[in-house]
């Protein structure tokens, strides 16, 4: 049986995003996938050259066994593959709200190397964020994991106690940003700008602002630098403040976090 670097059990939206990122750094022949949607796995195999395997085959032959299933499906999949995991396999989960401790309990194995990762969909285009926490995982294994997904964007090891809060921002955040971008574009369309131009300019504006924020790390100072006294930008900022943008954005992140906490109960 072929040995794989990565094995994806489940290639839904998030699993596919990670797969596309991994294909930039890992040879397609070293990646195996399985999913209940066999048409999708066959299409991915045909398009990219990855192998199609069963969950049990992936567990027995992949260095990193990546669970791309919903939180409610994690225990069932682990029960299915636990006895097939080879000694050197690292289990990787991206299920929201499922802790490293829970994963160990499902496996009934306190010694197994496990990585809990929380990626976001921009990993597809190499500008994603992946927070991760580990247990029983050597520095060598961590380095191999980071290398495999380095093309996804930022990989940041974080204390597991903070991972749910981090994911409420970066995991759910893209949807919030798309809403904001759509609203910006709608405003420009109302002012007379063609829709295609409005979407392009909104995307580039967010991309550029994000890059500046990454480099300078002070949202307030960057905002102030755009707001000339008595100018057009401060008038727009006033309108956003009046509409409650800050409070709504904070509420969105908090609602996502609280939903994650409910998944644990």
Number of strands: 8
CA(first)-CA(last) distance: 40 Å
What is the radius of gyration computed over CA atoms, rounded to a whole number of angstroms?
21 Å
CATH architectural category of the largest domain: 3-Layer(aba) Sandwich
Shape: elongated
Number of helices, where a helix is a run of at least 4 consecutive DSSP H or I residues: 12
Total domains, how many?
2
Largest sheet: 8 strands, mixed
Oligomeric nature of the chains: single chain
Which secondary structure elements does this structure contain, and how are they paired or packed?
Elements: E1 4-9, H1 13-22, E2 31-34, H2 38-48, E3 51-52, H3 55-61, E4 62-67, H4 74-81, E5 90-93, H5 100-107, E6 114-119, E7 128-135, H6 139-148, E8 153-157, H7 163-170, H8 173-190, H9 195-216, H10 219-226, H11 232-242, H12 245-264
Helix pairs in contact: 7-12, 8-9
Which key phrases capture this entry?
single chain; 265 residues; alpha/beta; Rossmann fold; ProC C-terminal domain-like fold; 12 helices; 53% helix
